[in-house]
DNA sequence: ATAATGCCTTCCGTAACGTCAAGGTCAATG
DNA sequence: CATTGACCTTGACGTTACGGAAGGCATTAT
C-alpha cells in the first residue's frame, strides 16, 4: 500500500503540513519520491508514524521522539521515566501558580485579612531598618539623611499592588529555599536564585543596595531569634542556609 | 529617581532585552528618551513594571497583562478568575498525560497483565469483523476478498507499538467522550473530536474507510447489549451519544 | 480540453525573549 | 586629551511545532 501526503494525513489524523515538517526535520522521511517530486509513503512509514504519534500524545518533544524512533535499541523506558519526571515537575509548578492566583483572588475579595502576614511584614521592615542603621553609615555619608528618610517613606507609601508584589516575592523566596534545601548546597543554582530573589525583595525596602549590607542582614537572620524561628519554621537550618547562599551571592564573607 | 535599562533591570531582576521588548510591544514605555536615544524610566514606570511582573509570575500572557495594566478600570478579578480556569484546565490535561505515561511505563515493565483489556480488544475485533461482514459487501465487490483478508491479517499482525497506539486512541476517545457528555451536545467540538478519534481508531482495523460502515458500526454500539454496557460503564447514555456524534460526523443518518 | 484537485517549495507568523553583531555614547583613567 | 571600558542603540536570527498563504507544476475527472 502506498500513500501520498493527504492519504496518510487522513489515515493518521494529521495535516499535510505536519508530514512535510516531519520530513524536513528528518523525523519521518517518505519511502520514496516520485518523478514529479511527490512524497510516497509505504506501510513501514505508516507504522513509524503511529509510533511517533503515540509518543507525541504523551507530550514528548519531537526531538526526544526522534531519538526514540531513530534506533530500536534506545532505552524507551528510561526516556519515559525521565519524561514523567519533567511532567510531574511541571505539575508542581502549575499547582504553585494556581495557589498563588487563588490567593490573589481571595485577597481582592477581602477574604484574607492579612493581619498575620502584615504583622510579620511590619516586623521585617523594622529589622531591615535596624540593619540599615547598622550598616548604612557609608550610605548615609554618601547620600545624606534625606535619602534614608525617603526610603522609609517609600515603605509607608507602598501601593496595594507593590505590596502584593512584595508578598509574592517573599513566597517565591520561600519556595526556592525549600527546594534548594534539598540539594543542601548554598552554591546551587536554586539557592543562588533564592538569594537573587531576596535581593529583589530587599529593593522594595532599600533605596540603595550594597553587598555588605545584604550580607550583614543575612548574618542577622541567624543571630536574631525571631528571624531564625521564622525561617526555620518549615525546615531546620533554613536561616543558616539562606545566610550562606547570600554570602556566596554577594561575595562577602563575615 | 531616573533609571537606564540596566539600572531598572537590576532593580527588577530582568534583562535589558526584556525591557526593550516590553517597549517594543507597548507594554512598558520609558518615561522619556534622552537626546542620544537612551531609554529613561521614572518611578512611575518602576511601579508599573512591578505590577507587570506580579501578573507575569502568575503565569499570565503579556497580552493579557497589557489589557490589565492599560486601564485601571479593567476588571482584574474577573481576569484572574478566567486565568485560574485556564490553569486548572491545563493541570487536568497534565494529569491525564502523567497518567498515560505511567500506564505506558507500567506496561513496559509487564506490570499490567492486559488480560482484561485484551479480552475486550479481542471482543471488539470480533465485532468489527462481524460489522464488516454486514456492511462490507460493497467494499468486497469493490476490492475483492483479498483486501478483506488482508485487513484481517493486519489486525493479527499488529506490533506491540501499534497495539499501544490503539489502546492510547481508545483512552483518548473515552476521555473526550466523558468531557463531551457534559456539554450534552453531540455536535460540539469535543464530541466531534471524539468521533474523529474513533475513526482513527477504526483505521487500525479497517483497510478501507466508508462513512456508511462507520455510521452502521455506531448504530450497533447502541443495539448490541455488550457494546452498550461497555460504553455506558462510566456514564449512562454514552453509547447513544457516541452514535449521534458519529452520525453527525459522517453525515450519514439511519 | 478544461476545470478541479493535489502536490511542490518558499516564506511569514506565533510567545517571549536570548544571543550575537555592528556601531554610537558616556565617564573615568593614564 | 585620547583612549579604554562600560553602557547604550537597532537589527536580525534562533527557539517549538506547526498554520496559512502565495505561486506554480502534476494528476485526475468531467
Account of the 3D structure:
2 copies of one chain form a homodimer. Chain A has 254 residues and is mostly helical. The first copy, chain A, has 2 domains: 5-70, Multidrug-efflux Transporter Regulator, Chain: A, Domain 2 (Orthogonal Bundle); 113-250, Antibiotic binding domain of TipA-like multidrug resistance regulators (Globin-like), CATH 1.10.490.50. Chain A has helices at 5-12, 16-24, 43-57, 62-70, 76-108, 115-135, 137-156, 160-183, 189-202, 211-223, 225-231, 238-250; strands at residues 32-33, 39-40. Chain A has a two-stranded antiparallel sheet. In chain A, strand 1 and strand 2 (39-40) form a beta hairpin. The longest helix of chain A is centred in the middle third of the chain and has 33 residues, at 76-108. The first copy, chain A, is elongated and about 80 Å long. In chain A, 26% of the residues are buried. The model of chain A has no long low-confidence stretch (mean pLDDT 80). The A-B interface holds A 1, 11-13, 47, 50-51, 53-54, 57-59, 76-77, 80-81, 83-84, 87-88, 90-91, 94-95, 97-98, 100-102, 104-105, 108-109, 159, 161-162, 164-165, 168, 172, 196-197, 199-200, 203 and B 11-13, 47, 50-51, 53-54, 57-59, 76-77, 80-81, 83-84, 87-88, 90-91, 94-95, 97-98, 100-102, 104-105, 108-109, 159, 161-162, 164-165, 168, 172, 196-197, 199-200, 203, 207. Chain A binds a DNA duplex (30 and 30 nucleotides) through residues 4-6, 15-18, 20-21, 25, 34, 36-39, 61-63.
